[in-house]
Amino acid sequence: MKLKCVILDDEPMARNFLERYCAKTPQLELLGSFGNAEEAFVYLKETEIDILFLDVEMPGDNGFELLDKLIYMPRVILTTSKTEYAFNAFEYHVTDFLKKPITYNRFLKSIEKAATSASDAATDEPKEKDFFIKAEGKLIRLSYEDILYIESVGDYVKYFTASKNYLTHSTLKAVEERMGIHQFMKIHRSYIVNLRKIKDIQDNSVVIEGKVIPISKSLRQGVMQKLNVV
C-alpha cells in the first residue's frame, strides 16, 4: 500500500526537489504540494494523509502552528535548514528531521522510518505507549493505558483518566482512526472506551470506574464479539 503524502515548503526549489524525490519513490503517492500553511490546511482538514513533508519557517503560520490546527497527526518529516527545532520535533513526535540540502539517499531513509511506523501502527501491539494532545493551551502527553474512555462533546472530545479529564479540539472519527489500533473501541456514536477498563456489562451498557456508558444497538454485536461475551 502506498503512503499518501503532502509537501509544505515556501521555497519553490525545495518543493521541486521533494516532488521529484516523491515521483521516483514507488512507496509514495504525492497528493499535493503547497507553498503556505493556509492553503495546506484547507486541503489537510478534508483529506487525511500518511506523511507530511513540513518546512518550519514560512510566511504566515509556521509548520508547528499548522500541526496545532489539525485534528489528526500524520507522520511528519521536517525539512529545514536549521537544527534548533529538535525539541519541538520531539514534542510533536516528528518521524524524522531532514536538514537541507536533502539528498535522495537521506530522503529514502526517512521514508523507511515512516513506513516502519505505519507497519507498527497496523499491529495490535504498537510500540508507542503514549501520544500528545493539544489541551489547556499546551501539548500534554497521555498514556494509552491511563485512558478510561473518550467522549464526543460537540466540536471537541474529552479524554477521561482516573485522575483528570482533558478537552481538546477534535472529532470522534479522528480519534477512532488513531486509537482503533490499541485496546479501544467505539461503542456508541459519542463514546470510545478502553476495553481493558470495563468492569461490568449491564444490558446495553458498560461500566468503567462507576460511569455507565451506553452501547449503540448497531454496535452491540461487534462489542460483544470483541469482549468475547458468550
What does this molecule look like?
With 230 residues, this protein is of the alpha/beta class. The chain has 2 domains: 3-121, Rossmann fold, CATH 3.40.50; 130-226, LytTr DNA-binding domain (OB fold (Dihydrolipoamide Acetyltransferase, E2P)). The chain contains 7 helices and 15 strands. The protein has helices at residues 12-23, 37-44, 63-69, 86-91, 104-121, 172-179, 217-226; strands spanning 3-8, 28-34, 51-54, 75-80, 96-99, 130-135, 138-143, 147-153, 156-161, 165-169, 184-188, 191-194, 200-202, 205-208, 211-214. The chain has a 5-stranded parallel sheet with strand order 2-1-3-4-5, with helices on both faces. Strands 10-9-8-12-11 form a 5-stranded antiparallel sheet. A hairpin with a 2-residue loop joins strand 6 (130-135) and strand 7. It is elongated. It starts with a strand and ends with a helix. Mean pLDDT is 86; it is low at 122-127.
Structural class by secondary-structure content: alpha/beta
Span between termini: 36 Å
Query: What is the CATH C level class of the largest domain, in words?
Result: Alpha Beta
**CATH H level, superfamily name of the largest domain:** Response regulator
User: Helicity, in percent?
Assistant: 25-40%
Domains (count) = 2
Mean pLDDT: 86
Secondary-structure element string: EHEHEHEHEHEEEEEHEEEEEH
Described by the principal axes of the CA atoms, the overall outline is: elongated
Strand order of the largest sheet: 2-1-3-4-5
Strand segment tally: 15
Q: Which architecture of the largest domain would the CATH scheme give at its second level?
A: 3-Layer(aba) Sandwich
Beta-strand percent range: 25-35%
Number of separate helices: 7
Q: Give the uncertain stretches in residue-range form.
A: 122-127
**CATH topology (level 3) name of the largest domain:** Rossmann fold
What kind of sheet is the major sheet?
5 strands, parallel
Q: What would you report as the Rg, rounded to the nearest angstrom?
A: 19 Å
